[in-house]
Write a structure and sequence with these properties.
608 residues, mainly alpha, Sodium/glucose cotransporter, 25 helices, 70% helix, globular, binds pantothenoic acid, binds sodium ion
């Protein structure tokens, strides 16, 4: 697009953007100067484990709802119809399972880093492998998050690209470093509200300018944008009910069940019940976020259906077109373009701040502290702050690398979650559900899972880039039906490995998770499965016990190879002696009165 056609910002828009940054820094400053003044790692990394469920839940949504979703989802709906909306079905199991399986196990172990679990259950090596995988995932993802809003804005408004990247990265680094997790959580709350407000403003103005709700609806129907449930079982079909509703559950589990960014928030809740409640509260807000993005895509379609926009946009992607639409709608309403810019950057800031803090936590807890067991608390806090800051700089470097990639941003993000997040999920599942899995199996499983996932991931990029579809010039040629025919042509031509590469990225998480579990179990049996008495108490979730709960007790005992373990709160929870050789002291935690009161009924205590 040539600069003469750029949409412009007024002074008030820049002021609103500046206010967002200033308010975030102010919150950081407040938590730097109040409470314990961020002098302990407990406060800096865990918010003193004193958080209430409401801020925690808003913060949980904010972690993985970045500008990628705000721009990418409307672009997806615009180009391919509402099929993606069915990912909302995956939120049910994708949040219920973390709430009732992962949170109880992880919270009761009184961890700081989720990967500490892997040492308690397996060994130090597994823990370090898990940590490194997580660091890799978040560092790549962070780059996409910080680059996306800056890039889209630049394409449409000429907003200084690297200026925006630097402003986001540096401001976020500042408040994360001075205010710790409390500042991260409370800025998330504020930023989530701004995010919703910005999206709502675009929808309201967009609907009004397109001629009202009924007109939008008519055009959307005419353009065939409303997709019914697609029950096509073909796993190479990008978005169907199965890939989104079932594959999406694994994606959600890898994000909301075992990702440090989220686990850290659960652990910062003052009681286990508050943690579970916050997970439940994510459901309505996440549905709202999804609905707003999808509706925005529909309104955008109603607005441009049949019109040829390729001229104004040149060869830009649909992602940039979303920004074009927003500016087209809001341009002459003072302040609103600024509100949307604030919405985009809120989404980005809240995601990278979680990333900085969680990365600082795992680097400190999993990689540094074990080597310096006698490090003083003030020293550890200082190092954690330095780490949060260093990850901010790495984030800026990654933004530059993202700049060199292509593809739709939503797909890039979802592929990262699947390729790297799926194997980590597999590792935790292997540990929690299969008492016989041993450390060698876990490492081999993780290796196999990552290997296979990278192979498909890279293969898909190489395969697809040869036949990627250009931006459709008008709504008539992008009707869902035409698209399907075009796509099935590619699929039927592909054979062997090519077809394997075409696996929908929505299956990556589930596929790599199962690869880890199956490889892990095979290797464990070959190298001598773990004995029941060697497994650290409280690290197993008695899955088979639960699944066969309808059977009489005697029969159940025969079926389930292991007696469920006592959680570590009970008096006899001393770790088996061999665990102490790892240099890891078993978490000593006496539940406070409040915790004991609010303590959930131990679902698996009954059978001990
Ligand atoms: C993580 C999900 C799938 C949860 O709905 C969604 O927020 C999403 O598609 N996010 C894309 C990645 C991002 O927004 O950074
Ligand atoms: Na976010």
């Amino acid at each position: 697009m040539n600069p003469a056609q750029y949409k412009h910002f007024a002074v008030v828009d820049y002021v609103i953007f500046a206010l967002l940054l200033a308010a975030s820094v102010a919150i950081g400053l407040y938590y730097a100067l109040s409470g314990g003044r961020q002098r302990t790692t407990q406060e800096f990394l865990m918010a003193d484990r004193s958080m209430h469920c409401l801020p925690v839940s808003l913060s949980l949504i904010a972690s993985f709802q970045s500008a990628v979703a705000i721009i990418g989802v409307p672009a997806e709906i615009y180009a391919h119809g509402t099929q993606y909306w069915f990912i909302g079905c995956a939120y049910i199991l994708g949040l219920l399972i973390p709430a009732h399986v992962f949170i109880p196990v992880l919270y009761r172990l009184h961890l700081t880093s989720a990967y500490q679990y892997l040492e308690l259950r397996f060994s130090k090596t597994v823990r370090i492998c898990g940590t490194l995988t997580f660091i890799f995932q978040m560092v790549v993802y962070m780059g996409v998050c910080v680059y996306t809003p800056a890039f889209a804005l630049n394409a449409v408004t000429g907003f200084e690209l690297w200026g925006a990247v630097l402003a986001t990265g540096l401001v976020c680094m500042l408040y994360t470093t001075i205010g710790g997790l409390k500042a991260v959580i409370w800025t998330d709350v504020f930023q989530t509200v701004v995010m919703f407000a910005g999206q709502l403003a675009v929808i309201v103005v967009g609907v009004q300018r397109t001629g009202g709700v009924s007109e939008v609806w008519r055009k959307v129907l005419e353009g065939n944008r409303i997709s019914g449930v697609d029950l096509n079982p073909d796993p190479t079909e990008r978005h169907t009910f199965w890939t989104l509703g079932v594959g999406g559950v694994f994606l959600m589990l890898s994000l909301y069940g075992v990702n440090q960014a989220q686990v850290q928030r659960y652990l910062s809740a003052r009681t286990e019940r508050q943690a579970v409640r916050s997970c439940y509260m994510v459901f309505p807000s996440l549905q709202l976020a999804l609905a707003l993005s999808c509706i925005m895509g529909l309104v955008m379609f109603a607005r441009y259906c049949g019109e040829d926009r390729s001229e104004q946009l040149g060869s830009s992607s649909t992602d940039a077109m979303v920004l074009y639409f927003v500016m087209d709608m809001l341009q002459d309403l003072p302040g609103l373009p600024g509100l949307f810019v604030a919405c985009l950057f809120s989404a980005a800031l809240s995601t990278i701040s979680s990333a900085f803090n969680s990365l600082a936590t795992v680097t400190m807890e999993d990689l540094i502290k074990p080597h310096f067991p006698s490090m003083s608390e003030s020293r550890a806090t200082l190092v954690s702050k330095a780490l949060a800051m260093s990850y901010g700089l790495i984030c800026l470097a990654m933004a530059y690398l993202t700049h060199l990639m292509g593809d739709s941003v939503l797909q890039v993000a979802l592929k990262i979650f699947g390729v790297v997040g799926g194997p980590i999920l597999g590792l935790f599942c292997l540990g929690m559900f299969f008492p016989c899995a041993n450390s060698t199996g876990a490492v081999a499983g993780l290796g196999a899972g990552l290997g296979v996932a990278f192979w498909i991931g890279v293969g898909s990029i190489v395969t697809r880039s040869s036949g990627s579809e250009p931006l459709p010039p008008s709504c008539r040629v992008i009707l869902a039906s035409d698209n399907t025919t075009a796509f099935s042509n590619i699929t039927s031509r592909a054979s062997g490995l090519k077809r394997f590469y075409l696996l929908s990225y929505m299956w990556y998480s589930g596929f790599s998770c199962f690869t880890v579990i199956i490889t892990g179990l095979i290797i464990s049996f070959l190298t001598g499965p773990m004995k029941e008495e060697d497994v650290t108490p409280g690290t197993i979730y008695p899955l088979s016990e639960k699944l066969f709960c309808f059977l009489p007790e005697g029969m159940r005992k025969k079926l389930c190879c292991v007696t469920p373990q006592r959680p570590p709160f009970s008096a006899q929870s001393a770790p088996p002696p061999h665990k102490e050789r790892n240099g890891l002291s078993f978490p000593q935690h006496k539940p406070s009165q409040e915790e004991t009161d609010e303590f959930l009924p131990l679902e698996y205590e009954t059978s001990v």
